[in-house]
Amino acid sequence: MKAKGYMGKILRVDLGSGKFDEEELTDKTAEDFIGGCGLGAKILYEETDAGTDPLGPDNLLIFAAGPVNGTKAFNSDRFDTVSKSPLTGIFAESNCGGYWGANFKKCGYDALVIRGRADTPVYIFIDDEQVLIKNAGHLWGRDTFETTAVLKVENGGSVRVAVIGQAGENLVRYANIISDGKHGRATGRCGLGAVMGSKNLKAVVVNGSRSVEIADEGRMTELTKKIAVMMEDGPEGLRSGGTAVGLDYCESVGNHPIKNWYQGSWPDGAKKLTGLTMAATKLVKKYHCGRCVINCGRVVKAVGGPYDGEEIAGPEYETLSLLGSNCLNDDLDSIIKANELCNRYGMDTISTGNCIGFAMEAYERGLLGKSDTDGLELVWGNGQAVIEMVERIGQRKGIGKLLGEGVKRASREIGGGSQEFAIEVKGLEPPGHDPRAHFTVALGYATSCRGACHLSAFTHDFEGGLSIKDLGSGELKERFQTDGRAENVYRMQNLMSMFDSLTFCKFILFGSGIAVQPLIDYLNCVTGWDIDHKAFFETGERIFNLKRLYNTRLGITRKDDTLPLRMLNHRKKGAPNELPPLNLMLSEYYEYRGWDEFGVPTPEKLKELGL
Amino acid sequence: MKAKGYMGKILRVDLGSGKFDEEELTDKTAEDFIGGCGLGAKILYEETDAGTDPLGPDNLLIFAAGPVNGTKAFNSDRFDTVSKSPLTGIFAESNCGGYWGANFKKCGYDALVIRGRADTPVYIFIDDEQVLIKNAGHLWGRDTFETTAVLKVENGGSVRVAVIGQAGENLVRYANIISDGKHGRATGRCGLGAVMGSKNLKAVVVNGSRSVEIADEGRMTELTKKIAVMMEDGPEGLRSGGTAVGLDYCESVGNHPIKNWYQGSWPDGAKKLTGLTMAATKLVKKYHCGRCVINCGRVVKAVGGPYDGEEIAGPEYETLSLLGSNCLNDDLDSIIKANELCNRYGMDTISTGNCIGFAMEAYERGLLGKSDTDGLELVWGNGQAVIEMVERIGQRKGIGKLLGEGVKRASREIGGGSQEFAIEVKGLEPPGHDPRAHFTVALGYATSCRGACHLSAFTHDFEGGLSIKDLGSGELKERFQTDGRAENVYRMQNLMSMFDSLTFCKFILFGSGIAVQPLIDYLNCVTGWDIDHKAFFETGERIFNLKRLYNTRLGITRKDDTLPLRMLNHRKKGAPNELPPLNLMLSEYYEYRGWDEFGVPTPEKLKELGL
Question: Which fold does the domain A9-207 belong to in CATH?
Answer without folding.
Answer: Aldehyde Ferredoxin Oxidoreductase;  A, domain 1 (3.60.9)
